[in-house]
Amino acid sequence: MGRGSVGSFARRGRATALGLAAGLLAIGMLAAPPALAGKKNDTLQMAYDQAPESVDPYFNNVRIGVIIAANVWDTLLYRDPVTHEYKGQLAKSWKQIDDKTLEFELRQGVKFHNGEEFDADSVVYTLNFVADPKNKAVTQQNVQWIEKVEKVDKYKVRVVSKEPFPAAKDYLATTLAIHPAKYYKEAGPKGMNAKPVGSGPYKVVEHIPGKSITLEKFADYFKDSPRTQPKIGKVRIRFIPDRQTQMAEVLSGGEDFIMHVPKDQAEKLQTVPHLQVLSGNTMRIVFMQMNTQDGGPAPQLKDVRVRKAIAHAIDREAIIKNIVGGGAEIINTICTPSQVGCTQQGATVYKYDPALAKKLLAEAGYPNGFELDIHAYRERNQTEAIINYLQAVGIKAKLNFLQYAAMRDQVRANKTALVHQTWGSNLVNDVSASTPVYYGFGADDVTRNAQVKELLNKGDHTIDPKARNELYRKALVTISENAYSVPLWSLPVYYVANKEVAFKPYSDELVRFWEMGWK
Question: How many CB atoms sit inside 10 A of residue 122's CB?
Fold first, then answer.
């Protein structure tokens, strides 16, 4: 298979998608969609393909859940998406007391959507609850560094880490939403999912799990927030798994905004008069996870030669050119290049070499290849291209395409072989939010190398930047040498929106409804 081609299977998939897109374009143009419908009703209509298993930010890690959380809840700190400067959000000011303690002076006069007053109790209860392993937060990696949160007085708290944790402020500025203490004590995570309550620029007015969620701008959002006051009155998000249905909806005017549109379809939609197409590279990385644990469904993956063969079988440049697009870049380590501590220095690079892949498989005792399953939950066209490349060297991979939560549970139950993963680090621009999730002996680690775990753990708790970077580098090099996974590319996002929507994409892949407006 030559460079620049993604094979007959992927070509057929692309042709089908293009045919459908072309048909939808014709329908859209003939239908003369009501392009101002959302603007007239002051309601932004958005569709997304994955439904969050919970709207409570600590019990979800699907991207749409992260987007909802950022709009409905506030965090102690705010990180500017362009300058990366920290500003006070629910905290007015902060100071480092010692290597493990941050003290926060809290804002007064902030109200939650249900009228409950924000104070130290909300910070203390929320963070202590989710940091307790027995409460089983899905995003455990975001809170496991917290030892305790103490109330100093009504508007002052201290956050104490188990060990020095240099990335603490980044987590407190991005993923650690603060719940109203009284309501969260009564409702718990299930109640918070059913009737979410935050203090952010938008409040939830309706949540139909698995179907839709409707947000309304919070008229009493506090004026001193580093975030702007919301402009659009309502945002309704529908969970529509089928991409073609999403396309039909945005063409007909039934939806104003969709994201993660495949490259070829996004390019077609650029010709539709009432739509705009925006794209940009993001923090999200794409990689193939390979299960080397005892008892896994594909014992072949325990042989490093097989893992290296898989890495050499995939033409990353061709898939980027033909399918991914949007400024995607090849990565050679499992972290976002912009993250503190991420490096590709010294990493083994597996170039596309199908002949070498076949040779390695033969040396491992599989001259005719073998069969195994590959799990995925998004970017199906990319997965199908990968399957085609694997088949070309003799590995017949059967696709299991699932919703994210179902796929994650299969991974954690040791029931997956290859997994086409993507990871956006929950907005955190620090390597502690990426590599350790998959290699730090957490629930999603399917390789469990003790040396890698120790290096990552030391890196997470080392204050000196130079020493910290070197620990992460050694861990990343070890992962690459053992071919525990196949780093693929950074994932750009194509957004398609009604031309009346004012929207700016950011590299953190976060849709900031509070910044959006009507033209």
Answer: 24
Query: What is the C-alpha to C-alpha distance for residues 219 and 203, in angstroms, rounded to an integer?
Result: 9
Distance separating alpha carbons of residues 165 and 460, to the nearest angstrom = 6
Question: In the chain, what's the furthest Cα-to-Cα distance?
Answer: 70
pLDDT given at position 35: 43
pLDDT tops 70 at residue 92: yes
Cα of 308 vs its chain's centroid, Å: 27
DSSP annotation of 337 reads T
Three-state SS at 204: strand
Cα separation of 196 and 207, whole Å?
Answer: 8
**How far is 318 from 74, CA to CA, in rounded Å?**
41
Q: Closest by alpha carbon to 212, among 52, 78, 94? A: 52
Task: Identify the pLDDT of residue 24.
Answer: 52
Cα(456)–Cα(335) distance, integer angstroms: 12
Q: How many CB atoms neighbour CB 398 within 10 A?
A: 11
Q: What is the 3-state secondary structure (H, E, C) of 49-60?
A: CCCCCCCCHHHC
3-state secondary structure 148-181: EEEEEECCEEEEEECCCCCCHHHHHCCCCCCCCH
